[in-house]
Specification:
The chain folds into 2 domains: about 210 residues, Rossmann fold (3-Layer(aba) Sandwich), CATH 3.40.50; about 150 residues, Rossmann fold (3-Layer(aba) Sandwich). The chain is built from 16 helices and 12 strands. Strand 6, helix 8 and strand 7 form a beta-alpha-beta unit. The longest helix has 22 residues. It has a 7-stranded parallel β-sheet. By secondary structure, the protein is of the alpha/beta class.
Length: about 375
């Protein structure tokens, strides 16, 4: 058994981020390890000038964005935090990676990933994500993502991170573009693997759901609403003759909304909506992943803002590239009525699951 530190994004109200970490911990526990995720929270500097600007705009009747604070973020995450506290092993809170604390824990191994952990804008010191301060033979990167198809590292970051990634025992990425970046920018051969959420089965997630009633509706999980996406949802609702309901809260990321209107539903509620849906429309990577896990008929609207390759990679791996809609304004009627052959899908998926799990297991040997 090894004591394993996991470095990933801050877990607050990002359902995919929370569940990929939950899944990774579950997989590592089944392998006999003792995982713990570093609890890294976003820092909200208290700048008086921001509040002065807010009040000035309020007095002038102008559109205003209330500065985010830890108290306000805690209010938004009150439901999702309950899941994290109940189901994920976490370290004490740290605003950035506390190097001295981590070193003093004497971890046997480190896992960096998954999610967009390699995006250089995620942390002040991206070198910390590459474990620049860790002297350990078992440094593993699993299913990490750069978060886009454009190279965003500075020359200094590229040079430094290339030096540190070469000290990892195993490196794997969840998107084709990321594999290319690792080779071309860092000189490292990375394996393409599945996101951790796909290493568990639907039954593992159903255990977390309180109800298994049939929703018999269209469920939407849209991160970036647009008129075109809303029109697509309305069209699907008319064709299928079903109501459309949201899995999440589309006001969560709206800085103009009141905090009480931005509260995120619980992880269990989000899972339940997806699991009980009759049809799913999403522009989310993990919305797509969980549609596949629960064997749902779905449409994924390509989300250029958040990166396209993560969609095309996983859908291409399991023969579902046709479920990716690049332009929601175009005719998608056939996709509403075409059923997915999950027998074929899972014959491909299970092979990738076995390979990804074996690769992760071998990384600890």
């Amino acid at each position: 058994m090894m004591k394993v530190a996991i470095i990933t994004h801050s877990l607050r109200y990002n359902y995919g981020g929370i569940l990929q970490n939950y899944a990774l911990q579950q997989v590592l526990k089944r392998m006999g390890h003792e995982p713990i995720t570093l609890k890294i929270f976003r820092v909200f500097p208290q700048k008086p000038v921001l509040y002065v600007k807010y009040l000035a705009k309020a007095l002038l009747g102008m559109k205003r964005l209330w500065p985010m604070s830890k108290r306000r973020m805690d209010a938004i995450c009150v439901n999702t935090d309950k899941f994290i506290n109940a189901h994920i092993e976490m370290s004490p809170l740290m605003n950035f990676i506390d190097r001295n604390w981590v070193i003093c824990q004497n971890y046997d191994a480190f896992v960096v990933g998954s999610d967009q952990i390699l995006h250089p804008g995620s942390y002040t010191r991206i070198e910390d994500i590459f474990l620049s301060f860790v002297e350990n033979d078992k440094k593993i990167m699993y299913a990490a993502s750069f978060g886009g198809e454009k190279w965003m590292y500075s020359q200094t970051q590229e040079k430094e991170c290339a030096k540190y990634i070469r000290k990892f025992k195993a490196v794997s990425i969840r998107e084709n573009t990321g594999v290319t970046f690792m080779k071309d920018k860092f000189g490292v051969n990375a394996n393409l693997v599945l996101d951790p959420t796909l290493l568990l089965k639907a039954e593992d997630y159903r255990k977390l759901i309180q109800s298994n009633s049939t929703e018999n509706s269209i469920v939407t999980y849209i991160l970036d609403p647009t008129i075109e996406k809303n029109t697509l949802i309305s069209t699907c609702s008319k064709i299928l003759g079903k109501n459309a309901v949201q899995a999440g809260n589309d006001q969560m990321d709206n800085p103009c909304a009141k905090i009480k209107d931005r509260v995120a539903p619980s992880v269990e509620t989000w899972l339940e909506k997806i699991a009980n849906a009759d049809f799913i429309i999403t522009d989310s990577y993990h919305g797509t992943i969980f549609s596949i896990i629960f064997k749902k008929n779905f449409i994924t609207i390509g989300n250029h803002k958040r990166g396209m390759d993560r969609f095309s990679t996983i859908l291409g791996m399991i023969g579902l590239s046709d479920r990716l809609v690049l332009d929601p304004k175009k005719d998608c009627d056939r996709l509403f009525l075409t059923l997915i052959d999950y027998g074929k899908v899972y014959s491909l998926l299970e092979k990738h699951q076995e390979e990804s799990t074996a690769l992760l297991r071998k990384s600890f040997c």
